Structures are given as C-alpha cells and as structure tokens.
Structures
1.
Amino acid sequence: MDSRLLFPAITVAIVVAFLKAAAAGKGEMNMVFYMHDNVIGNNVTAITVAGANGVSSPPGRFGTIVVISDVITKSPQLTETDSENIVGRAHGMYVNTNLVTGLDFLMVFTLIFHNTEYNGSTLEFQGTDRFDHPQREYAVVGGTGKFRFARGYAVVTTESLSGKNSVLKLNTTFRTP
C-alpha cells in the first residue's frame, strides 16, 4: 500500500472505533420501579419455602428462603384496577443471610415486563439487601429481549413498610450494547 494512503486509512479506522465506542454509551437507561412484597394479607406475593422451622420460618430468621412473584409498578401505590400502573412482576427469591440481626437478604430475581413497550423483556437483579440501611444497591447482571446483555445497578430504598409487607423503590440505571 502506498504510504500516502496509510495515514488516512489509519485515521479513518481510529475515528470509526471512537464512534462505535461513543455509540455504545447511548444504550444507558434509567427507570424507576416499585416492588410490592406482600408476605401477609389477601394478596400474598412472597412465600417461605424453607428455613430452620420449615415453611413456618419467618423471613426475618437466618437461613429462611422466600420465593417471590412481586408486582412491579411505576408508582408506589397499587390498586386492584391499576393495570396502567403495573410494569410487570419480579420472579425470584430472597434468602436471609444475617445470623445476628436477620436484616440482610440475598436478593435474586427477574423483572419480567408486561403491558409496556418492553413486553416480554427482562432484567436480572442480584445483591444484598441490608434492610436496616436507608439505601442499598443491587446489581443488574443481565437481561433479555430489548435489554439483552444489560449491566448496571439499582439504588434501593424502602418506600413504605406495613407490618411484614413492604414497597421497595428501585432507581435502576443500566446499559445495553
């Protein structure tokens, strides 16, 4: 190749690589969700499946495993006829991992989107919920559909607490390729 063409060719290759890298950053998204975890009441969404006392173990006891199918909404309030507010469901589990206080939970769940432009897509969450801390973080470790290969984090706060039931706010930031 002529040496006079080598410099422009290398320059073009560098510019193309830079533009691809810059375009990858455009995949960043921020979404805020509310996760309604109901351990007691009429609309139970979280059930103990194992623990030191079997299925009668309370979630606040070390080693207890709770399986969830929590409703995910756009706002913290939820009513029976609030289908526009519902984003999807969180399917997964949490395990009590704190032998002393019982207030740390390993959270592993999939947010499955329904009734939105992301219908059928998912985000995968994993992390420790130190429930006695005002702010916690979960990792976004993957996704499917429109969120394939998602990576990021969710800043989690307790929006409300009523007995054993809670509403968690997930301020979620993630990137997709």
Note: Strands lie at 28-37, 46-50, 65-73, 86-96, 104-113, 122-130, 136-144, 151-162, 165-175.
2.
Amino acid sequence: FMKHVTLPEELSWIKHMVIELWIDQEGFRAVRSCMQLMGYSPRTRSLHPYEDAEDAGSGVTAGVAEFMPMKRETFAFHYATLDSPPTLRMVSVAGDESRDYIS
C-alpha cells in the first residue's frame, strides 16, 4: 500500500527505500520487519521546529522521513525470568546486508 509522498528532488533516492529490522531472541527465533516511506515533513525536530531545514547556500536539505511497516505483523517471543528479551540485531537498507547501521 504505497502512499504518495512528496519529497524534495534531492531526497528522491529514499522514495522506494525499504528498511528491514532484524530482531531475534537468544540468537534464534529471528523475525524481519520491513518498513517503507509513508511520510515526509520539511520541518525538523530541532531547536527551531517551525523553520525549513533547507540551507539555500549549502544545498543541504533535511527534514523528517517517516517509515512504517509494510504490513501489520505480530511476533511471538518466549517470556520467562531467565530468557533474554528480543534484541534488535541489524538494520538493513534496500536489501544490502553488508553494512551495520547499529554499531
């Protein structure tokens, strides 16, 4: 369900980006949740939230991109006193598993 998102031309590269969160518990029971771009705002969450983040002199464009799950999913993990909690192990972008965005 791709929503139409208006982006500045400089950020068009994120339009079809898919972010995948890899979550597991104790090294197994792995789940992968895929997210896609659902919204964009040129306003930043900074000390000046009502000013555009674009600096005309530098050509830098910033804002807030919202990624949401592509489909609603639920995941079952074990819960007991001695079980470790589910852990975010990896974040991959566009199917590229060669980069570690967590460390």
Note: The radius of gyration is 17 Å.
3.
Amino acid sequence: MAAEPQKNHPLVNLPYLKDGDRYVYESQALYVYIAHKSGKPELLGKDAHAQVRLAQAQGVMKDTAQALWTKVMTSPKEEFAAKKGELIHQHLEEFIYKLNRFLEGHKWVAGDDLTTGDFQLYEILDIIRSIHHEALDKYENLVNFTKHFAELPAIHAYMGSERFQAKPFLPPGMTPWVE
C-alpha cells in the first residue's frame, strides 16, 4: 500500500477508496460511502425493518467470509482440488443453509428492495461457486438470488463489459484455486 493513505488515517486498510482528498477504508464503510455518494441511501435499507434484516444477514455473511478465508482458502494447494467439496461442506454448509432459509419468501437480502447486502451476498456466493461449482445447487433461494442479481440490467451490462474481471478475487498466490 502506498505511503500516502497510511499517513492520512489511523484505520488504514484494504480495500480503500480515494475520492478527492478523502480516503475511505473497510468494506462496510465503502458500501455506506458509495450509497450516500451516489444519492441512494435506500441501498442501506429503506426503513428500520430493512436495516435490521440487512444487519442480520451481514453478520452471517461476515461469519461465512471468515470461514471461507480461514478454513477453506488456507488449505494446502496440493490438497485443495481433491478436498474442495469436503471443505465447503465441512466449513460453509451451515452458513449457506442459513442464508438460503433467510432468503425464503424474499427476493433480496432486506426483503423486496435491493441493498448493499445483495452485492455482498452475490460476491460471497460467486466465490463459493468458483471453488466448487455445485455447492449451491440444492439451495433454491440462493440459486434464484444469484440469477436475479446477475440479470439486473446494470449488473448484466457490467458483467458483459471489458471492465469486468471474474478472477482473481485476491492477489495471485493467495488463493490456491485461482488458475
């Protein structure tokens, strides 16, 4: 990381965003900043009920991501291909099950309206599917969610553009499953 951001904020971390003279650090703060900067604070939940629902899902997503990075991604490269399905089942199945049930009867994380949590959930599910393509197949709500998200006009256009980069999710060498 360049020295400039490090001297400008005591909580410097990746990812970060530089907007003019302002630096914003940490994923959750970036979502809040971008929602407000784009004039779409409803992406943070349109009311208290949606905001609570979003916060609940974000807690489980954080646990899922932590298990993904600490339990699955740290598997030795030579063992990873043979064990990826087992690693997903052993360390992530509980979280996948919870998130699938949480979406039952709802199109999006906070209910009927798109929020920042939907971007977060799609990212986590996309990483899980890139590790083990069949990991979500038996979870109808998650399969439908990923389909609906990818079909959003702006998302669909972005994913079809030259700017879209499907992999790697992390710098080369940090993930044994990225080829």
Note: The CA atoms of residues 17 and 24 lie 5 Å apart.
